[in-house]
Amino acid sequence: MRIQIMGAGALGSLFGYFLLKGGYEVIFVARGEQYRALKENGLVITGIEEHKAEVSVTRYPENSDLVFLTVKAYDTLEASKLLRSVRFDAVCSLQNGVGNEEILARFFDNVVGGVTTYGANLVGPGKVMYAGKGKTMLGNYRGDYAEVFFEVLSNSGVDAEVVDDIEMRIWEKAAINAVINPITAICRFRNGKVIEIPEVWEIAERTAVECQEILMRMGYRLDVVKMVREVALRTSENRSSMLQDIERGRKTEVEFINGAFVRKGEEFGVDVHYNRTLLNLIRGIELGVD
Ligand code: PAF
């Protein structure tokens, strides 16, 4: 089976590596320095596992059986348009943020939503640090391919599960990201500090309560404050993906995280003061980065 990783950055490359180990033919779709490094030197995995592999890498998508989409949320539309020019059976998003599956479903019949807590950091072009084992949840968003992706991931040693409430899981992860990511990106510290510094935790807690209120209006009863505490503790040494984006002078996914909560909150008449403040501060930092 031929599987394509559309967006072979940190997480995409780690999953590509898992699939190679599982015996699949994997195509890594990457851009810029990452493309060049993967082509010239192969993929280097460090951290929990150490490995070096030659990989098949392209700049543009090719025909395949399945596609894992791991581009940043703001690139989903462009990636969907590119994918329209090739043939494949189904696509599974493993991205951060809310709204990716909705975009994909405008273009494709078989769309699987995915949420993963595996940790991966890009330590240099073509070099990925496998930072944390996690769990990957999959669910049908359109069509019926979740089981197929599940089998592929399980065969590759990935801890995966098919769930029937993927939309809730996506919002759940977005809520955790809405608290940890902008705060760590603004303060430029590791996730653990969010709970260690009382003044910072006060802001984190209030943001979490706002997210929780919005999720409740959506019919999802979740203890966001507790979840944020647990994730910040479990990933205390991680530098969040948003912090990494800011440090590299890149655009962040804040519009698909806090932006999504602000839009939902306004729809329900929930006060989104904290989410809006974090969203606007990150927007400001993005504008200041050249
Ligand atoms: O985006 C991230 O970095 C991660 O989702 C999380 C959970 C905040 C851990 O760093």
For the record, give the distance between the C-alpha atoms at the N and C termini, rounded to a whole number: 42 Å
The CATH homologous superfamily of the largest domain is termed NAD(P)-binding Rossmann-like Domain
Helix content: 40-55%
- What portion of the residues fall into strands of 2 or more residues? 15-25%
Report the CATH C-level class of the largest domain: Alpha Beta
List keywords for this structure.
N-(1-d-carboxylethyl)-l-norvaline Dehydrogenase, domain 2, alpha/beta, binds pantoate
Helices and strands, with pairings:
Blueprint: E1 2-6, H1 10-21, E2 25-29, H2 32-41, E3 43-47, E4 51-53, E5 56-58, E6 66-69, H3 76-83, E7 90-93, H4 100-107, E8 111-116, E9 119-124, E10 127-132, E11 136-142, H5 146-155, E12 160-162, H6 166-187, H7 193-196, H8 198-217, H9 224-234, H10 241-247, H11 258-268, H12 273-288
Parallel strand pairs: 1-2, 1-6, 2-5, 3-10, 6-7, 7-8, 11-12
Antiparallel strand pairs: 3-4, 8-11, 9-10
Helix pairs in contact: 3-4, 6-8, 6-9, 6-10, 6-12, 8-11, 11-12
The chain binds pantoate.
Pantoate binds at residues 96, 176-177, 180-181, 191, 231, 235, 238, 240-241.
Protein described:
- The chain is an alpha/beta fold.
- It has two domains: 2-164, 3-Layer(aba) Sandwich (Rossmann fold), CATH 3.40.50.720; 167-288, N-(1-d-carboxylethyl)-l-norvaline Dehydrogenase, domain 2 (Orthogonal Bundle), CATH 1.10.1040.
- The protein is 48% helix and 20% strand.
- The chain contains twelve helices and twelve strands.
- It has helices spanning 10-21, 32-41, 76-83, 100-107, 146-155, 166-187, 193-196, 198-217, 224-234, 241-247, 258-268, 273-288, and strands at 2-6, 25-29, 43-47, 51-53, 56-58, 66-69, 90-93, 111-116, 119-124, 127-132, 136-142, 160-162.
- The strands form two sheets. An eight-stranded mixed β-sheet has the order 5-2-1-6-7-8-11-12, with helices on both faces.
- Helix 1 (10-21) links the parallel strand 1 and strand 2 (25-29).
- The longest helix has 22 residues, at 166-187.
- The radius of gyration is 18 Å and the shape is globular.
- The termini are far apart.
- The relative contact order is 0.12.
- It binds pantoate (PAF).
